[in-house]
Amino acid sequence: MHAETELEFEALRAVCGRYVRSSLGREELAQVAPLSDRGAIENALIDAAEAIEYLRATTQPQPAARGSAIRVRFEGVADPGSSLARLRIEGVTLEPNEIFELARLLDLAAEARSILLAAREKYPRLAA
Fold first, then answer.
1. Looking at the domain assignment, is residue 20 inside a domain?
2. How far apart are CA 78 and CA 99, in angstroms?
3. C or N terminus of the chain, fewer CB within 10 Å?
4. Neighbouring residues of 106: CB distance < 8 A, sequence distance ≥ 6
5. Exposure on the CB side of residue 122, measured as CA atoms within 13 A
6. 11-54 tens-digit pLDDT
7. In the predicted model, what is the mean pLDDT of the chain?
8. Does any domain span residue 5?
């Protein structure tokens, strides 16, 4: 807890939260905690640096080529938590709109994965 206070971690989380566009992202951000292992911290910083580089590249003009950085968007994705919880109950069926939202989420995830795999030569950590 001392590290969270010293780092003003909740204030930092609030700043990061301004950039989160989905309920899934907000849930993920809520799980983030300070690290104490130096190796884990260094790896996280390398991951973050690559992600920042990728995001910057998405805002710059690029030639239309395989592996170009393309903005991945998840705005407006419905939270699948309740639908997934219901699927764990034997005999329960989902409403058509719930099935549609789950299919949409899977499509977006597959598209994001495809985009990042295409850019793996330049952004290997994001593609991993």
1. no
2. 11
3. N
4. none
5. 17
6. 999 999 998 888 888 889 999 988 889 999 999 999 999 999 99
7. 89
8. no
CA dihedral 116, 117, 123, 128 (to 10 degrees): 100
Percent of the chain whose predicted confidence (pLDDT) is above 70: 97
First to last CA, the chain: 31
* Number of domains the chain is built from: 1
Residue 61 forms part of a structural domain: yes
Band the pLDDT of 73: cuts 50, 70, 90.
confident
DSSP assignment of 44-61: HHHHHHHHHHHHHHHTS-
Residues of the domain holding 113:
35-127
pLDDT (mean) for 95-124: 93
* Residue 2 clears pLDDT 90, i.e. is over it: no
User: How many C-beta atoms surround the C-beta of residue 123 within 10 A?
Assistant: 19
CA distance 38 to 19: 27
Other CB atoms within a 10 A radius of the CB of residue 60 amount to 8
Tokens standing for 19?
């950039």
Task: State both tokens at 75.
Answer: 């705005």
